[in-house]
Amino acid sequence: MRFQLIGVNHKSAPLEVRERLAIPESRLADACRELTAYPGIEEGMLISTCNRVEVVTHTVNGHADLRGFLRDHFQLRDEDLDAHLYEFREKDAVRHIFRVASSLDSMVVGEAQILGQVKEAYATARAVGTVRGQLDQLLTRAFAVAKRVRTETAVGSSSVSIASVAVELAKKIFGSLQGKVVFIVGAGKMSELAARHLIAHGCESIFVSNRTYDRAVGLAHKFNGQAIRFDDLYEQCDRADIVITSTGSPQAIFRREHGEQFLSRRKNRPMFFIDIAVPRDVAPDMAKLDGIFTYDMDDLQQAVSSHVADRSKEAELAEAIIASEVEKFESRFEARQHTLDIVPTIVSLQDHLETIRQAEIDRVRGRMGKLTPEQEMAVEALTRGIINKVMHTPITTLKTAAKESEATTIVDVVRRLFNLHEKEKEAGRQQAAKKDEVETRQS
Amino acid sequence: MSLLWLRFALGCYLIGLIYAFVALNRTSDLFSRIALHAATLGMVFHFVSLVELFLSGQIVWASLRNGESMLAFLSMVLFLAVYTIYHTTSPGVVVFPVVFFLTFVAAVDQQPVLLTSLVQRRGWLIAHIILIFMGYAALVLSFGASLLYLVQERRLKSKKSASLTGYLPALEVIDQIGYRSLLLGFPFMTLGLLTGSVLAILVYGHVNFFDPKFSLSVLTWAVYMLMVFTRWNSGWRGRRAAVLATFAFVAALVAWAANYFSGIHRFAS
Predict the structure, then answer these.
(1) N or C: which end of chain A has fewer CB within 10 A?
(2) Model's pTM, two decimal places?
(3) Domains located in chain A, CATH noted
(4) Cα–Cα–Cα angle for A20, A23, A27, nearest 5°?
């Protein structure tokens, strides 16, 4: 495992530094090529988002000068960078890339965007051929780990903004928001945002009321809704299932008696008041009415922060998953590397013995005279049986050795004992000669 | 044999019963799926038990045991219907215990007791039993829904974050389940009562209004009607609806218990 990674993220570097390292999407492919052209780097890819820049590589010896690459590529001085960079190698690099893909390293832990961004970066690098065998294994595994984290923990399941909490609450009350009516009282940025979220989830009609009627008309126009004069507020309000209120009124504008009126006119169908005004627009005793649900700024904020807390609890779980995945990846990766070394040895050993067997049979066939098909088969079986029996233990040993560190030594010994190197070279020469022959014939 | 199948069904419903207790405290997708499959399997056994009983020719329509078994089965049918429409197993929290109890009683009680005087009016009897049981089953479901409504309302009002991650379906969905099963059950209940009255007239020549079975059944029906009316007219739900539903449910239970001391509706042994 000669993975090496260098980068900056929202924690290690301020925006000014991240800005200077950001790579626009159009330049990403070229940057990847440039990266792999840098000395000591076999494979490489770059992830560049607004919160991070990561240089992920597989190097020749595990000690490539990635800082040098950054310095050259962005024409920066060491002192600009050094304080903000983090660098990981081998296992740590694997862990880091797993954490990034699983959104544990994100500013908002659990947000889903980052996985998509990593996938895009991977696709770009793969397309230009700078990601091949080693990094491919790493990234494919990282995506699988991210998926596992997402399905096995609740990281990323709960909402973390006030607007999305409001939507979730509305859904808990009304089920589907399809066709629900939203009433915005007091045109403000926050209420506009919340309304936008609600519409995105299916709410249909929008009414807007504001002390300044013109502003109500303006906002209603944005949503294709209807402006209501502030004086008609109490007459019209019962039409709404969800009321978002954010006026600057010093006293509550919705009091218990209004709530009672609304409910009786609505035949007790529930109403949801989202009160984002400070001081509050909805009197606290409204909440005592059956069928009226009020959430003020504090309640919403609390829901948000408890979600954030939930997330960090789940994040611990996710870290445990990642730790075990890193171990698994490491051992599998090593095993695969050794198996790769061993398979050709086993194959050429078998080839070598098969050639000897065939040659020996041919040699004695002349002396034995004509054989019946049964005898022919018996000879075949006998010779094959001897070879298989003799070779069984060595091959098993080779295979077990593949998982241990002494693999290379054993492979080397076997190759030398059977003189496999020379044989392969010879075979290679023969093959090349054959190919040449074919080509000359064709031309 | 029929009893054996019933006991298998009982075993399956037991899982549902455990689910009902667990689901009150925590949410588990896996467990609700297990409970659902167990309940469905239980229904299959239950159905086999009912069919076998029917085919054996020894069916005693007015037997208490068969009645309870039938009521439990119909409740499960409604529960599954709700599941197919709303994809929620939450009503199981109430339905499973009721079904388990009914099946348990039916599977333990060995002696068939019957209304001997009614055997010749079989058609009316079967109609009466099925109709009234459908009404009861719908009542069980709507009672369950109104309790769940209360729970969910309290969660939402308490503003704990559990209200966001809770397993219960949305308030309006629970409300719809309750209201629809109420609407569905009402005609069954009404027709069930009417057929019962017709039976009484056929057998005894008159209806004894002061017989506990009759008066309690009428009371149940009246509360039932009140529920439908208040809901339809002024949208009663939540606490008030739950009080009414509880009242109707208790009335129905008492009316059922009246079998033991009614002069005309007795399952004579």
Answers:
(1) C
(2) 0.57
(3) 3-152 (3.30.460.30), 162-305 (3.40.50.720), 334-435 (no CATH)
(4) 140
